[in-house]
Design goal:
single chain; 555 residues; Neuraminidase; 4-stranded antiparallel β-sheet; 7 helices
Length: 555
Amino acid sequence: MDPHYDAQDVARCDLCEIAIVQSYCDFCHVNLCKPCIGEHISDDYSKHTIVPFQQRRSTPIYPKCETHRRKACELQCKDCNIFLCTDCLASEQHNKEHKLSKLEEVFHQKKGHIHRDKKELKEEILPVYEDIATEIKNQIANLDVDYQKFTTQMSKHREELHREIDNAMDQREKEIDENKLKHLSILTKHLEEIKQLQSLMQESLHNLNEMEDSNEVTPTIRYSSKNREFSKLPPKVIVSMPKFIPKPIEKEELCRLIGKLTPLSTTLEERVFTAKKQNTTVRELLDEPEVLNTIKTGYEGLRSVTCLNKEEIWTSGQLTADIKCFNTQGVLQKTIKTKSGYRPGDIAVYSDGALVYSDGSKRTVYKVKNDQTEEIIRLQGWKPTQLCVTSSGDLLVTMFSNDKTQSKVVRYSGSTVKQTIQFDDDGQPLYSGNNKIKYITENRNLDICVADSKADAVVVVNQAGKLRFRYTGPPSSTKKEPFKPWGITTDSQSRILTSDRNNHCIHIIDAYGHFLCCIDNCDLGDPSGLCVDNDDCLFVCEFYRGNVKRIQYLK
């Protein structure tokens, strides 16, 4: 800023310091009012360059010639790369065949280059560095949280190692007890044999006492000694004690057993360590599941059903923007229309009763609470499809890329991305890359389960996004059509239920991917979306019939 004025004042003349500036000397770099111009140029009119104040510093200041001191250089020799004045050209000192450039033209070219560089630096390059700096600051701010994950993970692994060591030591103690019992059995048996011989010898001794006092001839003559037989002592049973031979503890081997840290990575991926108490009540499967009632929704193409409690369910369909709420007796309670007027991709319910739905046409996820619709997620390059509200209050969203070649699962806390699940440890896609429906749910053990209809598989990863297993149907099937998973849900027993539209049934598998049974006796027609209420009643969407069947399948 000019030291002679600030933002609260106007520029003043540098000579009188009173009048408002109107002109500027581009040679001396002085502010001038009209009356002071004459005084300023009085010493040498020719050397001063007076311009309007708004055009200050617009007149090029040419360098002085080193040979002709009173001359300014206005040319540049391209061959010698030196500045020249007109006297230099007139003299014989410079080669007249060299190529010359006007300094004014070079000056303005360079000015243009400077302006472009300034604009590029300010508008393109600097913002990139600002983004990088912000990203690094965020990484630094998150270091404590990210490294706490390692500590938590190590603590969990420590507990697992201690548990496995305890199990191994328990096994060895069990083996010691088993050896003790065998040892006791051998010695007891040997003792019984000795006692039996002792009994025989006592009996023989009693007979000898009687014969010694007897006068009968015949028994005495017939007597035969057994002492030689008794003198043959039974073999001594030697049972060697088992020995515990501890394996030497080597630090390197122990470190390998514990595991290792991968090299530092700039990828930040937050993990959720919220653990939910497991239901300890074991509920067995019914031999014959029973349809409790059928709810007629009126949809042509019923896709999704979700519930927060055992009193109400929300439903959405293929051809309408209406999202309907029914009670479990089938009475319509409420209808909400999507903001865009297009059908929702999927619906889910938060623990506070707020409804959330995806709108692929707008690449947006909306939240509806107290009749107010709020946009919480807007995507670029991706379209949201199916939804799941987790036990910790996060939102899981399945989505596919605009070119329909990639699919992934993203975990959100509000509008913030917390986790992305897309590839396995080998860098291969976990899910088929297309726009086919991929219903999603969270199991009680915090596994994330996706019904990948294009891949004909249920894909299950743990809460960290690591692949646990893929379920592609029972080992041997009597079904006519290939397994085609559609809707998916889980129950209080951590069982996974998925609808098989091709075969009009529901597959039930355990938390480890083992097939348990099928619900195929309830006259299901094209089952699609599924949900389970907090009493483990199953709700099944019948796609073309537009009905929701409420089924009891647990004892």
